[in-house]
């Protein structure tokens, strides 16, 4: 089929996608991150500690903090214990375990600077270590403060994409359509979208991917308040011109979406990416509306659960296709 | 009137507003937020906790913090009480209430890390809980720090819009005018404005809104130091061409304003939106100047209280209209 | 002379400066802020607390913090004193003054959460107040943290402008020139400049200012590493075409400069403005170079003290002017 | 050779580089900072304290904090000691050294607000100093918090440039090529590059540098996921047209690179610069690919250690050159 397919595509490789034409697997994962692994140079230079912290889930992040906290106190407790409990006042000396427990709590009371004073350092060494533990504690919480702020002030688009794209009738022709909607209480304005397609072709030299910029019917929108349906009309300028349901199934296609908007709370540009591969494109379908007037007729209601709802339709001069 | 009205409008729907043409109620509320309610998916996924915190009023925000503080201490007090007051030193054991009061204060002294030590943990369990309460306290204040910063460093335009728009004489024709002024000690530069209009028309298929981009006489301004009067000349290219006072009253119109500027303290782009509906448009009026030289003639004074002041005027070849 | 002057200026008012043509006094102060006072609405709504804090000098800001600190402690000390010193342990009851001094220190130990515990609350009321003072203390330092960060992370261009502009020979004609240089260890790239002129003219209706966009010979620069001399060639397109030394002296002129660049440490756009009025324009002068190769010939040295150094020169077909 | 060389270059000086044509030494250091030293005005006005702190290495920064901490405590210890240890409770008065040690630890316990209370102020003076030390401590940690956040939230591109550029065959001609790759777990999009060349020429007036904008084959890229090879084709429009291997060796050339991209975690534009001088340009070489499909064929692997790997090649109608 590849030869016939190559005939079908008039215009050549138009995109500098940044992806290798011989890369393998999906280019953009569903979460919008490129499907690339990096090796070489050691892992510490290869990881941005800050990017990692910001990408952890809230649960992972908090667990990480707790584990660090316990660990640090354990280390210092050991140090105080080795220095000797006689350098601390108010220790329960009944047995070694109690001694260790008390120095552990002394450590935590120092690290958090709560410093009740029931247990307090008297000796030089213990005082010295405590001096630095309290200092370390404050720096640690200074870093935690920055991380918390970095995490929740990180501008994000909070867009929900439809899981599937459809090939629907559009202006006496067909169009590739998918939709997205902001799902949080954020106000996005001046949104624009960039669409490109990676299409795998077989050449004498083997399988390779070509990249095409896809034109969209309306690529800008003033206010992203309701859902936004992105429409790529399939005409002479589209690489999918004259594609049959079969072609969409048999060809390895990936539609790469890049949305950019302005968030008025962050006062910052936010971006979100996603991608659709062949399996996620439904031939001969149409999305059903997902907003309607409120009962009071005073405002509009956007129902986010409807984002994936579509109905099957016949396409102009193409046989209805049975699959799924 | 709708038919005659449709005749009058030459150019068609030019705007991709992002609002549904069948949405109901005002599109943009006076505060600039879109008049849309979201449903579907559960409320926690639908709310950005950070956006919510930043949109609270200062009073709401502080009340929220205080309530949280009391609530958390109450929880911990209960835990300490259940563990048993014998695990704490310096508790007033005269009666259960005093006991509870003392553990409550112990909790607060731990949470804030003030830790006087008059009341201090001795038992293992109490010490353990205190260890985590102090930790939790510091994290909580880390988050509070981020929220405070997020709240007051949030770039905002601090623009005041005139409550009303006017149809005033302009260059031997008429123009739709409204004005805005920065009302705080912020320095805005490179401001630009985008104007669009939603006009409701009746069709066989029922009532729907069309969107039009409105041209403005000067859509950019270097320094937003004084007030800025936005002027949309009503000529052949305006959807309001040949609109009578009556048309402005009878038709459902909404003028959507989007202002964007650069704030030199935030070093960030700030945006603000507003909108004017039919009731807020005064036919045959003119704004009065709101700035004048200072007595010393050394600087210029901008009087913000004058922003809504206008005087009635006759419009070229239109009868003077009586209403309001 | 105004009439002759009006004859001389071909092109009309090209700028939407945002300044009123009848405003009085200098438009932009030397520090770059517009010379406008706002009145109306009460002062609290008119001041952005954050903008004010960020614009204070370091000394003012720190003094402000110290005064607040002493004031708050004084208030709380009074409250504790009124509640009664018997609600606090370890108070020196020798005389009322000592009592007050001790509650004052207790207050500060609570507000900063240092809580030595030598003085500690025992009664219900004192404990309750202390509970909230510690809470307030932490919130206050949370805000201070944000303000400190806001102050020193505020993107600024750190540009030094020459105090004077010169009319110098340039390409067989003359040009208005001034120069600027980054004076701190910041790296600015992609800088561009916008020049406009306000020229006061006398009309039947009285004195008014016209605004003109001034073309600059090179308005963009890749890397702002050395000094940058801004050149406005005085040709047919310049409002200053055929201006004599006398005209420059007698006419009220203001050159408004707006520089915009990208700082690589802040990773943000930074802007700085300045302005030159007639008195600050020197007719028939030329700047002397302010950078030279280092002794080692390995790098270039920029001498910021030379920024205002110029030498007098004759201008093509204009008599040498004596003044100043 | 200079004359022959000047003949060779058709188009003239096209760039306003911001560098003096008579500056000496490399313009841009390998780290991307301009090779310029500033003098004049005193050093404190010339240094942005914040820029300095952000440019310190982590080790330098932490050492700086520790030194400050010890220093401040030493100062306050001295003050307390001079006030007299009798103003503090719980001091070990066995000998002056122990006294000083104890006041030092008291100071640190106050500065960090840990305040055990074993040592506590009783006298007026000591309490007063402690009041301000605790206050100072909190402000210091407020600043530290801001610095930590400023340091790790500072947007950076994390790009690795190839150490060398090559002159390689390209479209029946030759091209100057070098490559870069993101080496951390950051996601860069919408990257673009600006290339310029500084070429030293000898004139009657002496040696000077001319600046040229270099056209790049593809100057924009959607997603910077894999490596990016920047290609400047050497045709009639290139200042290097008809350059021989010898010319590249003998002429003082500097290629200045400026990359700009959008980082999705920082949600900010990030920039990075680098430069290549004659010694770093290899004539007749070609880079070897640095990415390949993963074993699973499920994703692509980018091997950062390969970034400098190249193989020698013959160039069209140029003799193979042996050197380096």
TrEMBL record, chains A, B, C, D:
Q: Transmembrane stretches, by residue range?
A: 61-83, 122-150
Q: In its UniProt record, which GO terms are filed under biological process?
A: potassium ion import across plasma membrane; regulation of monoatomic ion transmembrane transport
State the UniProt keywords alphabetically. Ion channel, Ion transport, Membrane, Potassium, Potassium transport, Transmembrane, Transmembrane helix, Transport, Voltage-gated channel
Domain Potassium channel residues, every copy: 70-148
State where it is primarily located. Answer: membrane
CC per GO annotation: monoatomic ion channel complex; plasma membrane
Signal peptide range equals: none
Topology class, membrane: Multi-pass membrane protein
InterPro entries the record matches: Ig_E-set (IPR014756), IRK_C (IPR041647), K_chnl_dom (IPR013099), K_chnl_inward-rec_Kir (IPR016449), K_chnl_inward-rec_Kir_cyto (IPR013518)
Q: Which GO terms describe its molecular function?
A: inward rectifier potassium channel activity
Q: List, alphabetically, the Pfam families matched.
A: Ion_trans_2, IRK_C
Superkingdom of this protein's organism: Bacteria
Domain Inward rectifier potassium channel C-terminal, which positions? 159-322
Write out the ranges of the annotated region (Disordered): 1-23
Q: Give the UniProt subcellular location, in the record's own words.
A: Membrane
Q: What is this protein called?
A: Inward rectifier potassium channel Kirbac3.1
């Amino acid at each position: 089929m590849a030869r016939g397919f190559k005939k079908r595509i008039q215009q050549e490789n138009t995109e500098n996608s940044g992806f290798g034409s011989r890369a393998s697997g999906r280019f953009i994962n569903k979460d919008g991150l490129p499907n690339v692994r990096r090796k070489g140079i050691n892992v510490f230079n290869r990881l941005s500690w800050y990017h990692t912290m910001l990408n952890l889930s809230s649960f992972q992040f908090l667990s990480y903090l707790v584990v660090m906290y316990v660990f640090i106190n354990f280390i210092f407790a050991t140090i105080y214990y080795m220095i000797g409990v006689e350098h601390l006042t108010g220790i329960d000396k009944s047995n070694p375990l109690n001694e260790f427990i008390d120095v552990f709590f002394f450590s935590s009371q120092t690290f958090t600077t709560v410093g009740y004073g029931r247990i307090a350092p008297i000796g030089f060494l213990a005082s010295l270590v405590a001096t630095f533990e309290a200092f370390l504690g404050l720096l640690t919480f200074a870093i935690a403060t920055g991380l918390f702020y970095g995490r929740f002030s990180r501008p994000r688009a909070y867009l929900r994409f439809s899981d599937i794209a459809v090939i629907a009738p559009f202006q006496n022709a067909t169009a590739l359509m998918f939709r997205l909607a902001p799902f949080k209480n954020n106000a996005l304005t001046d949104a624009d979208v960039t669409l490109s397609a990676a299409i795998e072709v077989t050449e004498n030299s083997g399988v390779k991917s070509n990249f095409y910029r896809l034109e969209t019917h309306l690529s800008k929108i003033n206010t992203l308040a309701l859902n936004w349906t992105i429409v790529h009309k399939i005409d002479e300028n589209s690489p999918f011109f004259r594609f049959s349901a079969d072609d969409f199934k048999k060809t390895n296609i990936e539609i790469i979406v890049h949305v950019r908007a302005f968030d008025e709370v962050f006062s910052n540009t936010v971006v979100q990416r996603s991608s659709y591969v062949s399996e996620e494109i439904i031939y001969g379908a149409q999305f059903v509306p997902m907003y309607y007037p409120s009962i009071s007729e005073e405002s509009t209601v956007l129902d986010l659960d409807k984002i994936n709802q579509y109905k099957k339709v016949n396409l102009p001069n193409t046989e209805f296709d049975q699959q799924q």
